[in-house]
Amino acid sequence: QQYKFILTGASLFHRKYMESYWQLPRAATDYVEQVFNCEDILLNFAVAMQSRMPPVWVDAPYLRTSTSGLFQQSAHGDKRSDCINKYVEMFGASALVPSDIVVRPVYKRFEKSDIDFSLA
User: If residue 103 lies in a helix (H) or strand (E), which one and from where to where?
Assistant: First the structure.
């Protein structure tokens, strides 16, 4: 299964890509502020434009810290599609590189119930 970007809540990247994000045209970051969404997609565009490489999905335990948010709003997927289309329009093409790379750790696969996420 192919994908083109990684949600930033579960991603790792070099800090130079944050610098790239803030060097994007002001219209791009203003659009994020306007729609109050899609900063993660824009960051993926920034990384892809600089690296010209696809993202890599690391299949590891991930704990979502919130059970509510923008992703639960109606038409959320449509809004994010609109963001991608807007960025393609701004940058002249989609910089996102498709990938089917999945890195799976070789250590014992943990279930959520096996991991203590408490801060005690």
Answer: strand 102-103
Nearest C-alpha neighbor of 5 from the set 34, 37, 33, 47: 47
Q: What are 99's strand-pairing partners?
A: 3
pTM beyond 0.90: no
Residue 58 main-chain phi, psi, to 5 deg: -100, 115
Half-sphere exposure of residue 112: CA atoms within 13 angstroms, side-chain side: 3
Q: List CB contacts of 24: < 8 A, sequence separation 6 or more.
A: 42, 45, 46
Active site residues per annotation:
40
pLDDT per residue as tens digits for the range 42-101: 999 999 999 999 998 888 776 666 665 555 567 778 899 999 999 999 999 999 999 998
Which two tokens mark 6? 């990684």
C-alpha–C-alpha distance, residues 37 and 96, integer Å: 18
Q: For 19-29, b where at least 16 C-beta lie within 10 A, e where not — what string?
A: ebbeebeeebe
Nearest-CA neighbor of 36 among 75, 7, 79? Answer: 79
